[in-house]
Amino acid sequence: MLSTQDWIHAPLGVVEEKFAAQKGSSPGWEAEVVEFFKEQLKEKSAQSLVPSLNDVPLHYLKPNSLVKFRCFIQDMFDPEFYMGVYETVDGPTDAKQMLHCGKYRDVAECGVDFNSKNTVTAERQTFYCVPIPGENLWVKDYAGSSQARVVASTSYVPSRQKRSYEEDEDMDTQPQKQAHALQGPTDLQSNADCKRQETEAPPTQAASASHLDLNFPLPGERGPACLVKVYEDWESFKLNDALEVFGILSVSPALSALAEEDASSSFLDPTEGMETAEEQRVHSPPASLVPRLHVLHAKPLQHNNPLLPHATSDDNMASVRAELLAYFTHVLLGDGLAAEFLLLHLLSSYSRRDALPLGKFTLNLSGLPAASYSERLYQILQQLVPCSWYLAMSLQNMNQTRLRPRKDYTANRLVSGSLQLAQNTSLFLDETRLEPGQLDATVCNVTALGNVITWQKVDYDFNYHQMEFPCNINVLIASEGRSLLPSDCRVHLEAQVTPAHLEEYLSSIQAFPQTSSQLNRFRIYLSVARLLDYSISDQMTKQYVEEDFVEMRKDDPQGVSADDLHRMLVVARLLCLSLGQNHLSRDGWLRAKHMEMLRRSRMEQHQTVNGNEP
Amino acid sequence: GQDSSAGDLMPMPTSPATDLLSPAAPQDTSLFSSPRPSGPNEVDISSPLVYGTPSSRVEGTPRSGVRGTPARQRPDLGSVRKAPQVDLHSDQPSADNAVASEPSAGQNLVIWGTDVNVGTCKEKFQRFLQRFIDPTSTEDENAGLDLNEPLYMQKLEEISVVGDPVLNVNCRHVQSFDAELYRQLICYPQEVIPTFDMAVNELFFERFPDSVLEYQIQVRPYNALKTKNMRNLNPEDIDQLITLGGMVIRTSQLIPEMQEAFFQCQVCAFSARVEVDRGRIAEPAVCRNCNNTHSMTLVHNRSVFSDKQMIKIQESPEDMPAGQTPHTTILYAHNDLVDKVQPGDRVNITGIYRAVPMRVHPRQSNVRSVYKTHIDAIHFRKTDEKRLHGLDQDGEQKLFTEDRVQTLKELAAKPDVYERLASALAPSIYEHEDIKKGILLQLFGGTRKDFSQTGRGNFRAEVNILLCGDPGTSKSQLLQYVYNLVPRGQYTSGKGSSAVGLTAYVMKDPETRQLVLQTGALVLSDNGICCIDEFDKMSDNTRSVLHEVMEQQTLSIAKAGIICQLNARTAVLAAANPVESQWNPKKTTIENIQLPHTLLSRFDLIFLMLDPQDEAYDRRLAHHLVSLYYQSEEQMEEEFLDMAVLKDYIAYARTYISPRLSEEASQALIEAYVDMRKIGSGRGMVSAYPRQLESLIRLAEAHAKVRFSEKVETIDVEEAKRLHREALKQSATDPRTGFVDISILTTGMSATARKRKEEVAQALKKLIQAKGKTPAMKYQQLLEDLRGQSETAITKELFDEALRALADEDYLTVTGKTVRLLA
């Protein structure tokens, strides 16, 4: 039986073994390999043994070891054919022939016999993956910290045990430069680096990668990008899926050398000219910057909240809700109603019925005070949701940033845009930043945002045509007046704090003590409530919803439309979910109605106050 | 320097396998289909396939019948000549994949690695050419040919006249004629196509011995059934003949590829020609004339190059599963196929799928275990080019499986199929049954009729629908649903789109710096549906382009030196909001939405989506909406037809069913039209125009399509009538009289309103005349006087209109607040 260490540190050994056992003749070995790793990774504890590419800098990871990567499919490349099984000829005497397995590898052994009849060509798919866009720091930190200790002990096991011990001594006595000189080859250099792990900050990967556009959806993101090679049912993966992949890390320097060589000599050989230099750069970047990952096991992530599966706290959801509500009320300048709606907004998610996204809940918080407030609000939300992004709707941003992804045919890749986000990402649109000026109509950024809000879809620009990709983004619009974008629900903030004390109050929000345990409770609560199932009983429908709707229509036939009913149903649903109930209760419905009523009356009141409001 | 011809046919000095890893290796395209033994035991039978080598171009061809016409090398087929034949019954190990086609002695020579016997294959193909008849052919290419004569012989005749030595062969024809030959063609194109070439040339020069061609005829097969979709390509397709559809996204510059190198000795000026073999040139080390070593230099100017172009094609958007990005494939076009296609073209290409190992640096010993794939193009067929000329029958024809067709037919046989389909349409939108039925008929469309011979051009077959009504009545949702349902749909909002965005605009291509026409939504939705939301918010300018599109179904453009007419056979589904945000039931449709009547009359059906404001309705609506939230997907699917089935149903009906009017149906239509005219004539109004008759015909045809019926029958007419009446009742009812009045839609004003206007004008005239000789009157005074006199209420608008009418008669003028009499 293999020890744990082996399947993590030398997964290719396992593959080879299975391959050799069956001589590669029957196709069964492939399934067996997949099954083996799946079995090994079943245990949560085993999963945490595997070092994560998200947390551990690449150069600390051992090549050809098993790693995991929490990622987001940013682009899908064309499928590639590789030598699944091939034969090598040994030297000039073609006497000794060996069968090899080419799966889970980038580079073949030397002396491939191309004319062998035993060659099997197989197909695999490459995805370009980046870390989940907008992933908040606390997620990264938590995921990292839960790993850290394990990583320190297992991330690196020297490939040549004995030599390494010698080096250990070297390290103690000699200056580092000399150690480097001794080691030479690149893969050994990582040994030395690893030694310095504790003392030195990791070399800035981003800096070295700066000349290479890693194509992150959001500006200012950093982290490893990875070419993920998928061997089994790649049709089930979709663009913008969040995944956790377990695979074999391949950083063979040969890959980079090949890439460079190809790029430089492409003009010499016209047949190679089919790939432009740009395309080369994108599709085979140096492995040191964009490692390859050969997938053994991949699972789609429903959420990326690292707290979730562990902490099955006994906390009553209602009590956490009350706590969170109090917190939000405090943050929203004492406005309890707005706090309620904000809480519901954070829980929302939708399902699609024909073209219609049902249950989305875009919130427009209007009447925000001074500009810096919206930013502070965002910082607070950032602490609570796993993924979020702040878009200041300044004229410059709206006219110049690229929101919609666009296909670049020269480099043959999908150039990402800020709206390429994973599901349930919170998008915070700060409209208070809007200043007078001319919007550039050709950029279509406002249209794109409108489409996201109304239809939950983004039209990707494929130059010759548009392609629609559904998304699931929670949009929160912060504005002074009514937003220029559509929204499902608008709440006008009524600050209980006098403007005179605003500055003071705002600074105190920041200081509002939040213990990490409380924050964690909130985080868990928000993710759990969102994932709850929900149903409406027939009786509820008949007794309350229908009656009430008919009643409301009677009172105000002009003012109440189907849209209002939609909204009330959504509010009621979210309200029940927020209380941990998975069905519509009478109480929930009444409360939702009440909340809606309060909101509406506030709007009307506000409208009469500000005559210019439409 | 003819001495090379024989020598070159010998295999190149056998190199160890590692040599393949040299930079030239990718050129070797025959790795998969015909692995050659690399040892000394090579079969040394020279192939008859030598005719195609460039060295033979100078001095005739090996085939006697082919005379002096030179052969042209086919780089699209790769290195042909290196395929020796083997005797099946010899001791060769190739027997594993060889199936003896004919067991007779002497017939069992096959090309190494295949089961192709050159002689048999040639014979079969000649037989095919001489005998194949396809009486039902509808292809463009066969226009003007006698379908009852052997098709390809006529094409050969054409070649002899035109002198373009290319013979396109439809693989489907080959398949129906000889399935075995077809299989060989698909599996071993590299070997079979040259054999075809040989066969056709023999045949051609036998028949037309005197014709002069630039080079020998090349056979270009197309329409192989192998693969239709790029996504389905897999390693098994390597080296096979495939056809796939896609869109060209990039074309490279022309790449000159050396076919034959010309060497000259620097000492004695002796020249030698060396053919390029698998991308490598074997430079002669020794001059054969003067025996100097390393004296030969390459003379570029005298070497022979062929044209080559790299083309990238991308999956067409229709073929793609949701949520995935399109795949791309690289193509190489050779010789005259270069520059045949431009980026943006939709093409069907036929070619040989290749995979070559990644090139490896000579200094490195390891290989990337990845192959590069490309397709050597043999034949291009543009699919959008045909769309400009007429309807494409096979280009986009969706292939339905037998099972699917069976399900669809079963569905069609159900008596309530019309209701079923209508309720399957946008199930999330509540009620509005008639509107859904109207949209359903729009999805199916009428039968296309061509009257161009009689000078009227095409009749519009598309049904246009306008939805107007209160905001928040899910008009946009309906539009969005339709847009998602049809394959060639476009969705625009009137607010955001300009005339240019709808039609076409001219822009400078960033790469070629040339002016190119970018088509807008209406052109893109040709043969589909263009959904236009917020129709009323459109600028007049934009709207005006719709006039042409909605009746003539074309789009004329004159911009930046580009003058053209594009087809826009699109059905328009538009939604408009009333001007006063709420529908005013006291006003006519025109007054409510403020659209020009010229445009409104082009809509076949105009529906009002009003809030009925009735309790029972509210209750049902609430129930329906709530059910959306708690019903699971499965429940919904059980209840309604699957969207995919609906899609297929519509696609099938649109492609295969083209109903014609039956005798009874025409009678019924005539009656219906006469009846409609009669209604109005009683009151001195015109209540129907020929346009309404055309609408009725279209609707009836569409309804017949729903039933999968090839004949329009009375029931179709009945439903068309009903729906048309229903729509009219909603949109063309005169709010003053309660009568349906078509002139509201055709002239923008109901007949009663017009009559009333005249009456008021007359009354006003009388009033003024009664006042005697006052040259100027106060406006306000006049209005009050008139009001006091009239027994019906006179609105200010009515008064203004009356004044305007009198002003038109030159009776008076209005300046500011004064009314002056003229004359």
UniProtKB/TrEMBL annotation, chain A:
The cross-references to InterPro entries, in alphabetical order and at most eight, read: MCM_complex-bd
Q: Does the keyword Nucleus apply?
A: yes
Keyword line: Nucleus
Region (Disordered) residue spans: 159-215
Its transmembrane ranges are none
One Pfam family of this protein, by short name? MCM_bind
Give a GO cellular-component term.
nucleus
Localization, per the record, is: Nucleus
GO terms (molecular function) for this protein are:
chromatin binding
Could you state one GO biological process linked to this protein? DNA-templated DNA replication
- What's this protein's family per the entry? Belongs to the MCMBP family.
- What is the protein name given in its UniProt record? Mini-chromosome maintenance complex-binding protein
Q: Which organism is it from?
A: Oryzias latipes
Automatic annotation (TrEMBL), chain B:
Q: Identify the EC number(s).
A: 3.6.4.12
Q: Which Pfam families would you find in this protein's record?
A: MCM, MCM_lid, MCM_N, MCM_OB, WHD_MCM4
- Top EC class, one word: hydrolase
Q: Which organism is it from?
A: Oryzias latipes (Japanese rice fish)
The entry's protein name is: DNA replication licensing factor MCM4
* UniProt main location, coarse: nucleus
Highest taxon, organism lineage: Eukaryota
Q: Where in the cell is it found?
A: Nucleus
Q: Which InterPro entries match?
A: AAA+_ATPase, MCM, MCM_4, MCM_CS, MCM_dom, MCM_lid, MCM_N, MCM_OB
User: Reaction catalysed by this chain?
Assistant: ATP + H2O = ADP + phosphate + H(+)
Q: Which family does it belong to?
A: Belongs to the MCM family.
| Key words of the record | ATP-binding, Cell cycle, DNA replication, DNA-binding, Helicase, Hydrolase, Nucleotide-binding, Nucleus
A GO cellular component annotation in the UniProt record: nucleus
Record region (Disordered): 1-103
PANTHER family from the xrefs?
A: DNA REPLICATION LICENSING FACTOR MCM FAMILY MEMBER (PTHR11630), DNA REPLICATION LICENSING FACTOR MCM4 (PTHR11630:SF66)
Query: What is an annotated GO biological process for this record, any one?
Result: DNA replication initiation
A single Gene Ontology MF term assigned here is:
DNA helicase activity
Encoding gene (name): MCM4
Q: Where is the composition biased (Polar residues)?
A: 27-36
Q: What does this protein do?
A: Acts as component of the MCM2-7 complex (MCM complex) which is the replicative helicase essential for 'once per cell cycle' DNA replication initiation and elongation in eukaryotic cells. The active ATPase sites in the MCM2-7 ring are formed through the interaction surfaces of two neighboring subunits such that a critical structure of a conserved arginine finger motif is provided in trans relative to the ATP-binding site of the Walker A box of the adjacent subunit. The six ATPase active sites, however, are likely to contribute differentially to the complex helicase activity.
Q: Where does the MCM C-terminal AAA(+) ATPase domain start and stop, copy by copy?
A: 417-625
On assembly, the entry states: Component of the MCM2-7 complex.
